[in-house]
């Protein structure tokens, strides 16, 4: 089942390391009022993962931004701008738990000795 797109939130890919949320906001604000800007961080490096999300108040503003910024250059990198898909909630009907063919649960006694054992099952691909 295909997930609906969020017509006022844009995915912005191809971000250079120097681009932060302020810069991303400044690049997209000419197209309309922005509700939110996020650049998810990599947990290991604490740097953004070369993509972000820009949420506009109006759908028309998001459409204009996508039309104008997809393929545009920012800090020497070409941007990919598309409508964002809703976040998938892990363990919910829409998330990976609803796809049993891709995952299976195994109890800890099935793992090799390199993994730690606990009383709850692990999820493995």
Structure write-up:
With 125 residues, this protein is an alpha+beta fold. It folds into two domains: 6-84, RRM (RNA recognition motif) domain (Alpha-Beta Plaits, 2-Layer Sandwich); 89-125, no CATH class. It contains two helices and eight strands. It has a four-stranded antiparallel beta sheet, covered by helices on one side. A two-stranded antiparallel sheet has the order 4-5. The protein has a two-stranded antiparallel sheet with strand order 7-8. The longest helix has 11 residues, at 59-69. The protein is globular and about 35 Å long. The relative contact order is 0.20. Mean pLDDT is 78; it is low at 94-125. Residues 8-86 form the RRM domain.
Describe the structure concisely for a colleague.
The chain has helices at residues 21-28, 59-69, and strands spanning 6-13, 34-38, 51-56, 73-74, 77-78, 80-84, 104-106, 122-124. It has 125 residues and is an alpha+beta fold.
Helix content: 10-25%
CATH homologous superfamily of the largest domain - what is it? RRM (RNA recognition motif) domain
Name of the CATH class of the largest domain: Alpha Beta
**What name does CATH use for the topology of the largest domain?**
Alpha-Beta Plaits
Q: Number of helical runs?
A: 2
Mean pLDDT: 78
Give the overall silhouette.
Answer: globular
* N- to C-terminal distance: 21 Å
State the order of secondary-structure elements, H for helix, E for strand: EHEEHEEEEE
Main sheet: strands, sense, barrel:
4 strands, antiparallel
Give the uncertain stretches in residue-range form. Answer: 94-125
Helical/strand content category: alpha+beta
């Amino acid at each position: 089942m295909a997930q609906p797109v969020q017509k006022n939130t844009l995915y912005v890919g191809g971000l250079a390391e120097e681009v932060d949320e302020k810069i991303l906001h400044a690049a997209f604000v000419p197209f309309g009022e922005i509700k939110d800007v996020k650049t998810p961080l990599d947990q290991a490096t604490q740097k953004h993962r070369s993509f972000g999300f820009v949420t506009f108040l109006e759908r028309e503003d998001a459409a204009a931004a996508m039309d104008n910024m997809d393929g545009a250059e920012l800090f020497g990198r070409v941007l990919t701008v598309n409508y964002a898909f809703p976040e998938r909630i892990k363990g919910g009907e829409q998330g990976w738990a609803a796809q049993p063919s891709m995952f299976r649960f195994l109890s800890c006694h099935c793992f090799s000795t390199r993994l730690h054992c606990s009383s709850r099952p692990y999820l493995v691909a």
